[in-house]
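The following block was generated as part of the benchmark described in Methods. Ligand: zinc ion.
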Amino acid sequence: MSASRSSAVRSRSVGGPAQRATWRLGAISLLLVAAIVGLFAKYGANVFSSGGSSDYQSGDEAVWEKWRPVDRSAESDTGAEYAALRETKPERRPTANDRSDLELKDIPFDGAAAYEYLKQVCAIGPRRSGSAGMRKQQELLVAHFKKLGAKIELQRFQTRHPLDGSVVPLANLIVTWHPERRERVLLCCHYDTRPYPENDPNPAKRKSDFIGANDGASSVGLLMQLGKSMPKVEGKVGVDFVFFDAEELVYEEGGFKRGDYFIGSYWFANEYKRKPPKHKYRAGILLDMVADAELHLYKDRHSLAFPAARPIVEEVWKLAAELEVREFIDAKGHLVQDDHLMLNEFGGIPTIDIIDFDYPRPGDETYWHTTSDVPENCSALSLAKVGWVVEEWLKRTVPK
Ligand SMILES: [Zn+2]
């Protein structure tokens, strides 16, 4: 994820708490609008003109009522509801009750294996969009998911490098399970890494390599492990894993930002709308920063603000409570700018974000976009907890 706290916004030197909150709110609104306007300008006005026609035949529509994308033009109260959600930080601090007693052996999802994948991905080194590291990661993932029997597509496109204008080749990796199923859900994450650890407390390290163990590799590792049980998923609903490129091909220095967020997810959502495929995505879950060794998963305020996505938030957190994964905290967290915004806004796919933005813990110096975002600060147990909840959501809550 990205814009919700830029390094400038996070700076400790900007006023007292109240002033910081105001700054943050202002900066967030500005960044979000800038990101969307920028992307719109860059990729043209075809967002709103859906070309092609879909030969998608819907089944029993009533089954999907709970995740129905809402015609926002017909709504009158979204503005007020949205405004009420536009706080930017967790509404309360974590307590002892927000820590579960679960151990790896109690959890059916193999977190240790997911953690090994996380380390394998980190061992490649930086995976910036368009880099040799990204290509290596793509090869690794293609081989991995092919072996598991998935259908694989690299959705290729390109952008301009934010600093020198050169062409950067990009690709979203789409991993499809049971391609014949027309009703589908989306599990997704970004797989590019931030160009530099520009938040590092040590200025000398801010141009060094960024490994992105939590911010990048964690959700990749989780999906690599989850892929193993996908061939066995029964019912009429198929699952796609989508790995977005160029979530954060953004350079920040001294409060100045070059580049756009969410280029890959915007491209994916726009293509889905413009050239409707034979299938339909009914719901989506975005995973980001899910391996923090100190796990606190608040409900992202943006996910709550999309009327069609909100029920998914409630389903997931309710399920986590049933499983006693108490790290899914029943409280509002940050207002997170992430790939799910593109899916909701431009793709019409109700999608939530499961993200632990307090890395390692709320109110402390962050490891986010620093050289401390390494496997040692992540944990197999956290991956197990999140992977379990997501897998159970697929099994129990997605209509059969
Ligand atoms: Zn990031």
